[in-house]
Design goal:
binds adenosine-5'-triphosphate, 6 strands, Rossmann fold
């Protein structure tokens, strides 16, 4: 077990088995003693979310309740204003001291890195773990490609040797599930069972989220 904090960010609107399986696999591959899923409060790259942040947080907590090794970090939901990852990681760094922080993001998100607020500073705060899905390809813009290449390490073990600044890729199983598809199914009155935990689906129905229950 590596003494390090791993952060798996997402909108989780709603959380589904694609997220959960990827989190379980990357948690196992990294072997860290502190693994957290961190729901975005107000994602800067989206106009709006389907469900309010407190609902997305509640659904994530329900999904992870049986799995104490996968924790929820609530800080972005509790914070006002847009959720910039660089600010979030700065607060985690304050708590972590010199402990390594591993920020996990999907290949699709990594491909957009050049558009992230103060993206260069992310490497002062954390390592980047790019979760590569089988059909996803790296498509980095010029400077990002160079920075990632210079910082790349081949083994996750190298991430435990420094607090931040390295980049590693890990493979995860791609399940063809997306929150967008689940929201669409609910809005159309269809049943997305088996794509997400039944406790989460029950919560969605109870609170009438994503247009379910509207005629
Ligand atoms: P949306 O459909 O609303 O865009 P999403 O299903 O892609 O949402 P996010 O909350 O945006 O989910 O994703 C959070 C993280 O989980 C990202 O890093 C993303 O790459 C990863 N992820 C999402 N869906 C899957 C999946 N089916 N398999 C593996 N990883 C996934």
């Amino acid at each position: 077990m590596i003494r390090a904090t791993a952060i798996f960010g997402g909108t989780f609107d709603p959380v589904h088995y694609g997220h959960l399986r990827a989190a379980a696999e990357v948690c196992e591959k990294l072997g860290v003693d502190d693994f957290r899923l961190l729901p975005a409060g107000q994602p800067p790259h989206r106009d709006h979310t389907g469900a309010e942040a407190y609902h997305r947080l509640a659904m994530l907590e329900l999904a992870l309740a049986p799995y104490p090794d996968l924790a929820v970090d609530e800080r972005e939901v509790r914070r006002e204003g847009p959720s910039y990852m660089v600010d979030t990681l700065a607060t985690i760094r304050e708590e972590a001291g010199q402990r390594p922080i591993l920020f996990c993001l999907g290949q699709d998100a990594a491909n957009q890195l050049s558009g992230w607020h103060r993206w260069r500073e992310l490497f002062d705060l954390a390592h980047l773990v790019v979760m590569k899905r089988p059909r996803s390809r790296p498509r980095y813009s010029g400077e990002v490609a160079e920075v990632l290449r210079d910082r790349r390490v081949r083994s996750v073990r190298k991430l435990s040797e420094a607090p931040a600044g390295r980049v590693c890729t890990v493979g995860v199983t791609q399940l063809a599930i997306s929150s967008t598809d689940i929201r669409n199914q609910l809005a159309e009155g269809r049943d997305p069972r088996f794509l997400l935990p039944s406790t989460v689906l029950a919560y969605i129905r109870k609170h009438g989220l994503y247009g379910c229950g509207e005629s």
